[in-house]
Amino acid sequence: MKVMSIFGTRPEIIRLSRIFSKLDSNFEHIMVNTNQNFTPELSQIFFSDLKIRKPDYNLRISTGQYGKEIADIIQKSEKIILKEKPDIILILGDTNSGLAAIPAAHHGVKIVHLEAGMRSYDSRMPEEKNRVLIDHLSSILLPYTNYSRENLIRENIHPSKIYVVGNPIIEVIDFYMPKIEQSSILEKMKLKTDSYFLVTAHRSENVDNPETLSKIISGLEKIHFKFKKRVIYPIHPRTLSKLKKKIPKGVECIKPLGFFDFTKLEKNAFCLITDSGTIPEESLYFKKPCITIRDSTERPEYIESGSNILSGLEPQNLINSIKLATSSEFNLEWDKSLGDGKTSLKVANILQGKIDRQKYE
Ligand code: UDP
User: Fold this and answer.
1) DSSP string, 330-345
2) What order do you get walking across the sheet with 88-92 strand by strand?
3) Residue 357 binned pLDDT confidence (cut-offs 50, 70, 90)
4) Quick check: CB of 14 below 6 Å from ligand 1?
5) Interval between CA 157 and ligand 1 midpoint (Å)
6) UDP-N-acetylglucosamine 2-epimerase domain: which residues (predicted)?
7) The whole model's pTM is what?
8) Domains of the chain
């Protein structure tokens, strides 16, 4: 059986890293990188750190302008799909690269969607539109949690197509824990455990609007003075390109980090502040409080787990949320919304066992 994985961004490369290796050993596996994230610090570093083999294809799509980017993804992935004739296309998540599902569906190739069923019900998010579209074009849907499975069923997707497989990030962190422990980033940056905030922010609804971006930056400045802790902000090139304002004193913007250095910083931070999807999941793994600076989330499980507060962007709300999240009462027994760390095995088993039966559905 020929399985083609199509991906293009940092979180896809990280989350798929263990699954790639399972696919390589059990299937004829064609890896297609759209290069949606093309800077070395968002792409190449993860191939070398996580020992991911070279993709079979690099599509080098044009990025920046929406229509051009999508058109390029569709045209270039269609070409490879027609050439390679895979039995299955594997897509993870909600990025524009996942829209390779459109030509795959058009040509009758079965689509398997990992991270299916997440819904923020926030129509401002480009990712929300992609999620709905990819889910409804897919033959097999692999949500991380039962919550996401229920979203799919509410949208009339037949339960026989859905398997809950847990969150692949757990397996990745477990596998690389010795490397994470070896990272010397704390010494390099002269940071002590619990002495700093770790920040990421790059969602388009937050950083594309100069007013909201400026609110985020001013919130970070305020927390530096209020809590007297360093604020470490590995800044995504997307955000950097939108920044007009001078970075205030106390906010330390650095280049994006490799996975081992970044997760080492997560593990030792006082509190994580983010608009990322993956960081609330990693915070639960490390049992670190996490504040999501957004108004909506597609991951309510992390709020229910007690590890994540959805603060919005107002600086005073951010301060109050940090106080609450880092107070001792907040130290709850956090549950296992993350699955059991065996996602790659489950994905391979499902692909192997399901493909022929799908003929009769
Ligand atoms: N990450 C990293 N270096 C950084 C920032 C993040 O390796 O400087 C990792 C982080 O540990 C997580 C992933 O990148 O696994 C999150 O990616 P991102 O926030 O870009 O995507 P999202 O989760 O929002 O889709």
Assistant:
1) G------TT--S-HHH
2) 57-58, 28-33, 2-7, 88-92, 110-114, 140-142
3) low
4) yes
5) 30
6) 24-351
7) 0.95
8) 2-168+341-357 (3.40.50.2000), 175-336 (3.40.50.2000)
